[in-house]
Amino acid sequence: MNQKIIASVIVIGIALAALIVSFQSNSTPEITIANSIEPIAIDFESTEFTIMETNGIKHLIPLDKIRGGGPPMDGIPSIDNPVFADLQRSYFMSDSDTVIGLEINGEAKAYPIFILVWHEIVNDTVGGIPVAVTYCPLCYTNQVFERVIDGQEVEFGTSGKLYNSNLLMYDRLTESYWSQALGMAVKGELSGYKLNLVPFDVITWGDWKTLHPDTMVLTTDTGHIRSYATDPYGSYYTEPRIMFPVEHSDDRLYPKEIIIGFNQDSIYKAYKQNDIESNIIINDLIGETPVMLISLYSENSRAFERTINGVVLDFVYADNKIFDSQTNSEWNYDGLSIFGEYEGQQLERMPIEPGFWFSWVAFHPGTDLFGDVKN
User: Fold this and answer.
1) Domain encompassing residue 318
2) pLDDT computed for residue 265 by the predictor
3) Which residues neighbour 35 within 8 Å (Cβ) at sequence distance 6 or greater?
4) Based on the domain organization, do 290 and 184 belong to the same domain?
5) Which of 195, 224, 299, 358 lies at 20 to 30 Å from 323 by C-alpha?
6) Cβ-count burial of 84 within 10 angstroms (0-12 exposed, 13-18 middle, 19+ buried)?
């Protein structure tokens, strides 16, 4: 075996061992399952998956494809009582740190990836909306869900299991397993239920606080002792090797190319983050939906439906400003027209699904790819 590969295996093995020891060194939080909550009514007809039952267990995915990731249930502890700091107290942050940024109903919060890599889930409330901010280091899949099931607020934790190398969460209401990549319950009582996605930003701290100077940022005061200055996955993000099996592969892109995925009108489509950054604006169609993707900041992309009052708009970036070609109205990065015929009009922001290419195609093997000659 190539010595470089052996060295990489050893480094990752040591990192995972340290990760597991660190997770298990703290007491696992006591989980209380709420028994007094009303039964959940689910419209299972809406799911595109077939619900199976094996030995009385409902599931959407083959049970033998669910694999242990190392730590046990809650061995990677979710953050359930997050503590935040304002800009004046954000001395532990560097401008180059990557964060998941959320702005809901005028409230802005940032969640550093260097904290999420140790916890994977933050149960929080932003702008009055209960949310689960999630991150799977193995797939670089960032996602924010509205943590409401049939009108009931619920917390999520880590199951210690993986499917397609991706985080399987569990809810503390029924202990059903949820695929982070699908946003859907895949094993247990709630199999087939899908969570609402919440638009968010993957962005550097420096750029996020410029956009939101009133933001709060998640602190390392998590109630757990972790080496937040180090990443337990080391060089994994830049190596082609995938640590756990996946169902499908696709060599159109490098396995760990960062893509932005969409599921729209039953069409799956992926865009390279680098393509969006280099184009600045992409006008496209996903199924029947006209979309505009835009990136004005490194690592960051936003997406909007580019329709106002039934009119499909084409957008351009000129003189450091965003214009539509139809009326030459000016728009800001939030999708709001700030000058011209459409002043005051708001584009609908779309949720995005960022992550590594190998993860996206593992779940969506028939995906379209922007720029692919087949499309």
Assistant:
1) 258-369
2) 86
3) none
4) no
5) 299
6) middle
Quote the pLDDT of residue 12.
Answer: 46
Residues 210 and 262 in one domain: no
| CB-based contact 114:120 (threshold 8 Å) | no
Beta bridge partners of 26: none
Among residues 218, 245, 267, which one ends one of the domains?
218
Check whether residue 205 and residue 283 sit in a common domain.
no
Mean pLDDT by 10 residues, the chain (375 residues): 42 46 40 35 51 94 95 97 98 98 98 98 98 98 97 97 98 98 97 97 98 98 96 94 94 97 94 98 97 98 97 98 98 98 98 98 96 68
Among 246, 308, 299, 278, which residue's Cα sits nearest to residue 370?
278
Q: How is 201-236 classified by DSSP, letter by letter?
A: EEEEHHHHHHH-TT-EEE-S-SSS---TTS-TTGGG
Helix or strand or coil: residue 44? helix
Helix (H, G, I), strand (E, B) or coil at 293: strand
Based on the domain organization, do 278 and 214 belong to the same domain? no
Q: Are residue 199 and residue 323 in the same domain, yes or no? A: no
Q: What's the chain's length in residues?
A: 375
Residue-by-residue DSSP string for 125-169: EETTEEEEEEEETTTTEEEEEE-EETTEE--EEEEEEEETTEEEE
On whether the CB atoms of residues 175 and 185 are closer than 8 A, the answer is no
CA distance 200 to 99: 10
**CA angle 346-131-154, nearest 5°?**
140
∠ Cα 339 345 349 (to 5°): 115
pLDDT at res. 310? 95
Tally of domains in the chain? 2
Asked whether residue 225 is domain-assigned, the answer is no
pLDDT score at 50: 86
Separation CA 70–CA 262 (nearest Å): 30
Two tokens, residue 334: 């939030």
Q: What is the pLDDT of residue 161?
A: 98
Cα dihedral sign, 216-217-218-219: negative
